[in-house]
Design a protein that fits this description.
The complex is a heterodimer of chains A (100) and B (479). Chain A is an alpha+beta fold and 100 residues long. Chain A has a domain at 1-50: Histone, subunit A (Orthogonal Bundle). Chain A has 3 helices and 3 strands; from the N terminus they run H-H-E-H-E-E. Chain A has a two-stranded antiparallel sheet. Chain B is of the alpha+beta class. Chain B has 3 domains: 4-288, no CATH class; 297-410, no CATH class; 418-478, Arc Repressor Mutant, subunit A (Orthogonal Bundle), CATH 1.10.10.410. Chain B has a 9-stranded mixed β-sheet. Chain B has a 3-stranded antiparallel β-sheet with strand order 5-4-15, with no helix packed on it. In chain B, strands 8-9 form a two-stranded antiparallel ribbon. In chain B, helix 10 packs antiparallel against helix 11 (386-399). The longest helix of chain B is centred in the middle third of the chain and has 20 residues, at 220-239. The chains are: A alpha+beta (100), B alpha+beta (479). At the A-B interface, strand 1 and strand 3 of A face strand 2, helix 2, strand 8 and strand 9 of B. Strand 1 of chain A pairs parallel with strand 2 (52-53) of chain B, so a sheet runs across the interface.
């Protein structure tokens, strides 16, 4: 199978933007290489003819329908919930203003 | 002159009436103190694992079945990735390619014409938290109580052709969801939300025009108004040979216009992938049948039955079946007193007005079917007049008292002594000489005013028919 380049510089920058990660030019080059080598490894699956094999939705193939009953359990207190918050206002998390 | 056609598809989100959230045991209740119903799962803390709420699963199946959908053989969840402060995990557990169901439909009736609106799909997802914008300019506050509550998303086909049809679709959908008791559909509390895709095209054109996605419509009226405005806006653009831009627009209730959100399209890349923390689900045929049996008679069938079983017209049958509680109230009342038409009149008239005034559902009032049957019986037996009955009804609403007892206590019984009525008529004629003269001079309409005065003077206790008769006799004699 012909090799296609999936990850180029533009793609790397876009993935970083979607993940809200600021990258320097040097880092873009570095992560582009790493992402490429990961995909290169995964691409070995292309060697197998998987045309008639249904996609695997979950590795635990034989396990289905795991539920819990609709019964309330104790929640955290607001104090506990806010414990790791960098900023708060009363019992609310406080975040930079979002428009819209 | 070119004519244009409007094409609308609706996306409805409805909160399921479960005790707890979709994937954790935190309570899913509106109005709790901020951040008092959260846990490591819905806060997205590392290592926490979601487990699906069985009731949410069954409710989703029930709704899909009530909407005539085909249930999927395999149901799985996916992650929808985006960053927003109300989404603590930075992804929403939703469904991408294998939702609960596809291909349903819902019938609407617009001015006597029936039409089927296709349902594209029904899927389950978790809600986000609530962002609160205050006067503090630099910050927003976040309450994560709502994060993780189960939402059912119901997507329609672009089969809707006008704001009126959109409104009817929503009304019918709401009625069905309420009938099957999976959601309370309270738009004010946000348990029913609606977004719309709308485009226009020259009449006869097959391909779709460029669409806008409308958000922020918080009532049925807002949906209708926003769609009417947007359809007009797009048609105006096309008429001026300008282009419609594909974008998201917000309905501004104050200015009554839609406003572009100016979001770059490229930022919409949700990078969906299967949620590895949830295994797939399968609804067995047996379970589907079991759930199907729990679906009660739906509005469409009930309306048809009401029309034939109780000989009601289109207006009454539609009105009575719009709300399951009203429909049940009606049938219980008919069982006590077999006067369906009168019961329908009261329920759709004075009772509906009283409910609207008080912003309350019939189940939350003190009025019972026995009350209404008793009240109508009193009118039929000429114990009270229709106008006195209205006063009694208001009293029952507020006190929950027995109508007969209220009539006695307030002295609202119909005046049976004709001597008493004659003396009231005499007084009214004396006090309204001008109207009396008008009548004698041929303005026969003046009699209506005089009857009204008799009713007023008797505090609604006079029989208007009798009053009319006595007034006429007197006036004719005096000619």
């Amino acid at each position: 199978m012909a090799k296609r380049k999936i990850i180029d510089e533009k793609m790397t920058r876009n993935v970083a933007r979607l993940s809200r990660i600021a990258l320097s030019d040097r880092e873009v080059t570095k992560y582009k290489k790493q992402l490429e080598s990961i995909l290169e490894y995964i691409r070995k699956i292309d060697l197998v003819d998987s045309k008639d094999i249904p996609p695997t939705n979950h590795p635990l193939e034989n396990l289905k329908n795991v539920f819990r009953k609709d019964v309330a359990r104790k929640s955290l207190t607001p104090e506990e919930a806010l414990k790791n918050a960098p900023d708060r206002k009363g019992d609310f998390f406080r975040v930079p203003r979002i428009i819209g | 002159m070119k004519r244009y056609e409007t094409v609308i598809g609706l996306e409805v989100h409805t909160q399921l009436l479960t005790e707890t959230k979709a994937f954790c045991g935190c309570r899913a209740k509106f109005g709790l103190p901020p951040n008092s119903s959260t846990c490591p799962v819905c806060l997205g803390l590392p290592g926490a694992l979601p487990v699906l709420n069985e009731k949410a699963f069954r409710f989703a199946l029930k709704a899909a079945l009530a909407l005539d959908c085909e249930i999927q053989k395999l149901i799985k969840f996916d992650r929808k990735n985006y960053y927003y402060p109300d989404l603590p995990k930075n992804f929403q557990i939703s469904q991408y390619d294998l939702p609960f169901a596809f291909r349903g439909h819902l019938e609407i009736e617009n001015k006597g014409v029936r039409k089927e609106i296709g349902i594209t799909r029904v899927h389950l997802e978790e809600d986000a938290g609530k962002l609160i914008h205050t006067r503090e300019a630099q910050a927003s506050y976040v309450d994560l109580n709502r994060a993780g509550t189960p939402l059912l998303e119901i997507v329609s086909e672009p089969d809707i052709r006008s704001p009126e049809e959109a409104s009817l679709y929503l009304e019918n959908l709401k009625a069905i969801l309420e009938y099957i008791e999976v959601s309370d559909c309270n738009m004010e509390e946000g348990s029913l939300r609606c977004d719309a895709n709308i485009s226009v095209r020259p009449e006869g054109e097959r391909s779709l025009g460029v669409k806008a996605e409308l958000k922020n419509m918080n009532s049925f009226k807002a949906v209708r108004d926003a769609l009417a405005y947007e359809s007009e806006r797009q048609i105006e653009l096309l008429k001026k040979r300008k282009k419609v831009v594909q974008e998201t627009r917000l309905w501004n209730e104050k200015k009554r216009i839609t406003i572009s959100m100016r979001v770059k399209e490229e930022s919409h890349d949700y990078r969906y992938f299967p949620e590895p923390d949830l295994i797939p689900f399968v609804a067995s045929d047996e379970e589907i049948e079991k759930i199907r049996h729990t679906i009660p008679e739906l509005p469409k069938a009930k309306k048809k039955r009401f029309a034939s079983e109780y000989s009601l017209g289109e207006y009454d049958a539609t009105g009575l079946t719009r709300d399951a509680d009203i429909a049940n109230f009606f049938e219980k009342t008919v069982k006590i007193l077999n006067s369906p038409k009168e019961i329908a009149n009261w329920l759709l008239g004075d009772i509906t007005s009283a409910l609207n005034e008080r912003h309350v559902a019939i189940g939350k009032t003190r009025v019972t079917p026995a009350h209404l049957a008793g009240l109508i019986k009193l009118i039929q037996q000429k114990e009270i007049t229709g106008s006195a009955a209205k006063q009694v009804l208001i009293d029952v609403f507020d006190s929950g008292g027995d109508p007969e007892e209220i009539v006695r206590r307030k002295g609202l019984g119909q005046i049976k002594d004709s001597g008493e009525l004659v003396s009231i008529v005499r007084e009214v004629l004396r006090e309204n000489e001008k109207s009396a003269t008008d009548y004698k001079n041929g303005k026969t309409n003046a009699i209506m005013f005089l009857v009204g005065q008799v009713m007023k003077k008797s505090k609604g206790k006079a029989d208007p028919g009798k009053a009319n008769k006595i007034l006429k006799e007197r006036l004719e004699n005096e000619k």
